[in-house]
Amino acid sequence: MKLLKLVQLEGVADRYPSQLSGGQRQRIALARALAVEPKVLLLDEPFGALDAKVRSELRQWLRQLHDEIQVTSVFVTHDQEEALEVADRIVVMNEGRVEQAGTPDEVYENPANPFILSFLGSVNLFHGRVHMGKARLGAIDIAVPEHATTDNTAVVGYVRSHDISVERRPSDGASIGAEVRNVHSIGPIVRVTFGVNGKNETIQAELTREVFQKLALKKGERVYVRPRNVRVFVEDYQI
Fold first, then answer.
1. What is the reported pLDDT for 198?
2. CA–CA separation, 17 vs 108, rounded Å?
3. Is residue 131 scored above 50 in pLDDT?
């Protein structure tokens, strides 16, 4: 009963497994694992078969439970949002190799390579060249001090979709003319796809609903997009 109370299911003590919801079964499974007072908990995609709403609820619950019981846990997941929300420390793996390890903020804000950057959210790619700390990516010129000694080398600039600003008028030389191609609302986020300068290239922006409504964007109209927080990697970076 102590464990049932811990996982907030003391009210279902007299039920059979078939009478429990998927989320309740996962909590009971965790209670069984805790019964032996383990030093380490190994959780292999424990919420994989559950729907999005239940997954979200259980993530918050597990985070609170973990803070309470203080048992070291290894949580395997392919859900990036799940990892960022639940973990104190993240290890990102690719084909059996550790690509980066750190706190959720460290991994998200300072990705070690293009794989990490692309894995933790949708990105736009801007191809260009860098020479002695200055990169030209199409019409964009930016300073890249981390490439201060790089000599005339092909590079790719990576920009997350939420780091694309949309403007009615160009604010500076980094603004790129674009045409609204597609608009897709996803709850509080509106995902807008832009065609760039009449080419087949596209740029995707994720806007808050408030910003989208303020801009009043319509399919087919021309506006300007401006990348922020550009991260530059050598084009043939091996991951």
1. 66
2. 39
3. yes
- 234 Cβ contact partners less than 8 Å away, ≥ 6 residues apart: 130, 150, 153, 154, 155
User: What pLDDT, in 10s, does the model give residues 64-100?
Assistant: 888 888 889 999 998 898 999 999 999 999 999 999 9
- List the end-to-end C-alpha distance of the chain, in Å, as a whole number: 49
Q: What is the pTM of this model?
A: 0.80
Total length of the chain: 239
- In the numeric block, the tokens 């990036």 are attached to 80
Beta bridge partners of 44: 76
- Residue 3 has a pLDDT of 84
Backbone angles phi, psi at 12, to 5 degrees: -115, 20
Q: What is the pLDDT of residue 83?
A: 92
Alpha carbons 40 and 229: distance in angstroms, whole number: 38
Strand partners for 156? 127, 233
Which tokens go with 125? 């790619």
DSSP E strands, the chain: 40-44, 72-76, 90-94, 97-102, 123-131, 134-137, 140-143, 153-160, 164-167, 176-186, 189-196, 202-208, 222-227, 231-234
Q: What is the pLDDT of residue 237?
A: 58
Q: Which of 143, 110, 140, 146 lies closest to 126, judged by CA? A: 140
